[in-house]
């Protein structure tokens, strides 16, 4: 008997006992659906997080001051002084040394938070000093107007780039009307006046999520970094800044080069040193963690496959018992042990394969529904489908072999006598 005939007989057997076949498949369906669903949601979550972080610049490298460790690994004490800060001269030297590898350097200075007011109209703001390359490095798009120019930075002018949300609150959404207008900002006990030279497009991300209403949303009001330092009475240097590497540059390796270069200035500093972290390495670590969690959960969900496999073995043993006379008749007509073994193994694999297919569809639907909640809408990957089909066939072969082997070893005379 060829394999096609075995498949036909297995299918006929399943149709004759539909309810029993469905109950037998149930464990396989649940197990495969769980594995596919978890892998799909994990893939969607990874894509969502990667997209959100990638929008901030995959090639970005964060450079920051960190306290040095002593010989036993403890952080040394000491507050940051002006002499410890990363100076403009250091940053200029870095830019000159790696000019071809650096696409931009982002500098910023927090100058406090408050409100922009004009009569009954208001907008909540965070006053942030930036340099001209800040918008590019951080992926912020201009809606109208211009970016800061060198004269704005050098002279510490009172000019500002505001969000389109602020324009909605203060100028009725008319960006053209906002440009060139003065805006009064209340920060603590200070009243500051800035001239609006640009409007940027505000985009919510994982770093600035808020439950506030559209009217009460807090957005950044950008001013020249030198102006912000005067307002905040801050030192000229920086505790951190961001470097955007050119696309062709390996940002992970470049991060180490930046760290080595800047730490030459901190050889004689007892308390502080420079450390770097690339966004690419953070993404790799995060994806590795998410994949590990997904696989771990899939393994736990896969326990139901073991239960389903035991169910398949149990039903196949029952089937062997019910069809003992049929087995005896086939052997009397010349069927070999191998023919009988293949017949029952194929039947077991068909049961598991159908169950796996149903589970794959159900798991894909659950995974899509789950990822739709995070606005990703991912589908099962080719790899997860291969895993589902492979597991289904493997379970059918593994748990179907023992009943099939038992059927193959039946004595034909004893089988024909069986009632």
What report would you give on this structure?
With 419 residues, the protein is α+β, with helices and mostly antiparallel strands. It folds into two domains: 3-52 and 285-417, no CATH class; 60-278, no CATH class. 54% of the residues lie in helices and 19% in strands. It contains 15 helices and eleven strands. It has helices at residues 3-16, 18-54, 88-97, 134-137, 150-155, 164-171, 175-178, 225-232, 251-263, 279-301, 303-322, 324-332, 337-372, 382-408, 412-417, and strands spanning 60-67, 102-106, 108-118, 121-130, 142-145, 159-163, 182-187, 190-200, 219-224, 240-245, 272-278. The strands form two sheets. Strands 3, 4, 5, 6, 7, 8 and 9 form a seven-stranded mixed β-sheet that branches. Strands 2-10-1-11 form a four-stranded antiparallel β-sheet. Strand 3 (108-118) and strand 4 (121-130) form a beta hairpin. Helix 2 (18-54) packs antiparallel against helix 11. The chain is elongated, with a radius of gyration of 34 Å.
In short:
By secondary structure, the protein is α+β, with helices and mostly antiparallel strands. Helix content is 54%, strand content 19%. It has 15 helices and eleven strands.
